[in-house]
Design a protein that fits this description.
The complex is a heterodimer of chains A (301) and B (260). Chain A is an alpha/beta fold and 301 residues long. Chain A has helices at 40-47, 69-73, 91-101, 106-120, 135-146, 165-180, 192-198, 216-223, 236-247, 266-273, 287-295; strands spanning 2-11, 14-24, 29-33, 55-60, 63-65, 76-79, 153-157, 184-189, 201-206, 209-214, 227-233, 250-254, 257-262, 278-284. The two termini of chain A are 33 Å apart. Chain B has 260 residues and is mostly helical. Chain B has 11 helices and no strands. In chain B, helix 5 (107-135) crosses helix 11 (232-258), helix 7 (148-169) runs antiparallel to helix 10 (212-225) and helix 10 (212-225) crosses helix 11. The radius of gyration of chain B is 19 Å and the shape is globular. Chain B starts with 12 loop residues before the first helix and ends with a helix. Classes of the chains: A alpha/beta (301), B mainly alpha (260). Chains A and B meet through helix 2 and helix 3 of A and helix 1 and helix 4 of B.
């Protein structure tokens, strides 16, 4: 459905995307993860043919991009990171106007509108102005808008950033429904739980290149010890100095917390129980641990 | 992609035009009144007020002279306001252009849609002033005044294209004030809206001859007075060049702004 080879994009002297290879199969939900500035949004814009790559090949739904980007975009629905619903229109009018940009016959769009409104859970808001919608409603409408031309593939750029938990779950529910219908989805996110929940496969992007790729569970198995014991409280630093190297397979101190990675968590836990003043949290390793291991803990502003 | 390349327009600009039309239609009456009140007040106030002191300007009653200038001036303003403030809202604030560009549309289509919309809206402004001219009988020949309609559309295209350049380079709404104080207002004073260009010192007259509003007025004024304009092709050519160069330049600058 999507094939990318050796994709590169430079701005001035900064290489934003550096030799990216991607292959997304039909019906797959593929995640593009990375810290801010890793090149996720630039990659999406390249895939849509909005900007031209310096080198590399893109084939989207079997169509070469950017050479035939117009045709390719007929097959793609986009949910952008920054909300850009048309505030001069109502909910229904937004869908109608957006359909017209795809050259669709107004009658044909009108027929699809009730289904799209139902999908977005906005049937009761059909004639409301955009200003009356909550953040979650706006996102759902943006998602429905991306479906107005019944695309085969969807690009979502951080679809749930800024939403409350209830609203996020509604978006996830909608996305799962689309996956079940056989749509192909490419989404960027920096929420690990979102990626773990939704994606079949994902690529972790850093400094414009892929540092790891695979199914979420496979990435956890391949890159990190199965359990984490987080240690905090008074005396953490002393304990870290004296025991971390022997009791943990790998450890890392971040601020007030020691992350002790291990396949045998009972060993550090037994030691911790005998150290008053220290508290700990034992949990299975997650995608977030992989992400932080691979991309580092530095702030990316 | 080179910085400057020839626009590749397609019929896909029509949905963009239509989008703006549908939004305008919702508030059509207040929008028309808002657009017209200002030029109309100037035209009638100055026309009757000064007109009583100046019985004959450029071979016609002053109000007729002024009405012809106002047609061009009001059209210029309508096109300029549309591509400055309204297009800027759609491009920068509401990000409507970004949304449209994710559909199978190019920036060429979007900006042609904006330009044709600005020309359409300014056509309406020009025609409204023309209607007042008809109503007050300020014309030489009614049939001749019908030619003002295509002239006004061309004037809208010209100033729409020029204004889009400002839209492309502006960081915020405040920036547009420069365009008004440095370009639009001087043009109103130099191009013969309120008084004949021949009253200006020779240096200013020669500057005036290069300005697009002068060409617009040189077409509109004779038509109001029932005469065939002189050097028609020169004026049409000048307006077309200002508008097209503006559009092509604006396209290149906007591409750099949005699609980098």
């Amino acid at each position: 459905m999507l094939r990318v080879q050796g994709l590169s994009k430079r701005y001035g002297t900064t290489e934003v995307v550096r030799g990216l290879d991607l292959h997304v199969r039909r019906g797959e939900c593929f995640g593009l993860l990375g810290p801010n500035g890793a090149g996720k949004t630039t990659t999406l814009r390249l895939l849509l043919g909005l900007i031209e790559p310096d080198s590399g090949q893109i084939e989207l739904a079997g169509i070469p991009v950017p050479a035939r980007a117009r045709e390719a975009r007929m097959k793609v629905g986009v949910v952008p990171q920054i909300d850009n619903l048309d505030p001069d229109f109502t909910v229904r009018e937004n869908l109608l106007a957006y359909g017209s940009y795809f050259g669709l016959d107004q009658r044909k769009i009108t027929e699809r509108v009730p289904m799209l409104l139902e999908f977005a859970g906005l049937t009761h808001k059909a004639d409301a102005p955009i200003a009356q919608l909550s953040g979650g409603m706006k996102r759902r409408l943006t998602l429905a808008r991306a479906l107005v031309h019944d695309p085969d593939i969807l690009f979502l750029d951080e679809p749930t950033t800024g939403l409350d938990p209830q609203a996020r779950h509604l978006i996830w529910q909608g996305l799962r429904r689309l996956i079940a219908e056989g749509k192909t989805i490419v989404l960027t996110t920096h929420f690990m739980d979102e990626a773990e929940r939704l994606t079949d496969r994902l690529a972790i992007l850093d400094h414009g290149r892929i540092v790891a790729e695979g199914a979420p569970s496979a990435l956890i198995n391949a890159h990190i010890e199965p359990a984490v014991v987080e240690v905090f409280g008074d005396g953490m630093e002393v304990w870290a100095r004296e025991h971390a190297a022997t009791l943990c397979q790998r450890s890392e101190t971040v601020g007030e917390t020691l992350f002790c990675y291990t396949a045998t968590p009972e060993i550090p836990i037994a030691a911790l129980k005998q150290t008053p003043g220290l508290r700990y949290l034992h949990r299975p390793s997650s995608l977030e641990d992989v992400f932080l291991k691979l991309t580092g803990r530095d702030l990316r502003d | 992609m080179s910085f400057l390349h020839l626009p590749q327009p397609s019929w896909r600009f029509i949905p963009v035009w239509r989008r703006n039309y549908l939004v305008w239609k919702k508030l059509a009456i207040p929008s028309i009144l808002g657009n017209l009140a200002d030029p109309m007040l100037y035209m009638l106030g100055l026309g009757f007020g000064l007109g009583s002191l100046l019985p004959n300007v450029g071979g016609a009653p002053y109000i007729t002279f002024l009405a012809a200038g106002t047609v061009a001036y009001s059209t210029m303003n309508a096109a300029t306001f549309e591509v400055l403030y309204s297009s800027f809202s759609r491009m920068h604030v509401q990000r409507t252009w970004d949304a449209i560009l994710n559909a199978p549309m190019t920036l060429d289509d979007v900006m042609l849609g904006e330009l044709t919309w600005a020309a359409s809206k300014s056509l309406l402004s020009g025609v409204a002033i023309l209607a007042v001219i008809w109503g007050l009988g300020l014309y030489g020949s009614f049939w001749m005044t019908l030619w003002i309609i295509p002239v006004v559309a061309l004037v809208g295209f010209c100033f729409g294209g020029m204004g889009l350049v400002m839209n492309a380079v502006s960081p915020s709404y405040d920036f547009f004030l420069y365009y008004f104080t440095l370009v639009i207002t001087p043009m109103v004073l130099l191009c013969g809206v309120f008084f004949p260009v021949s009253q200006l010192p020779p240096l200013l007259q020669s500057i005036s001859a290069w300005l697009p509003l002068t060409h617009a007025i040189d077409l509109a004024r004779p038509l109001v007075m029932g005469q065939v304009p002189q050097s028609i092709l020169l004026h049409i050519g000048a307006l077309l060049i200002y508008g097209s160069v503006g559009y092509v330049l604006a396209l290149a600058l906007t591409r750099r702004r949005l699609l980098k």
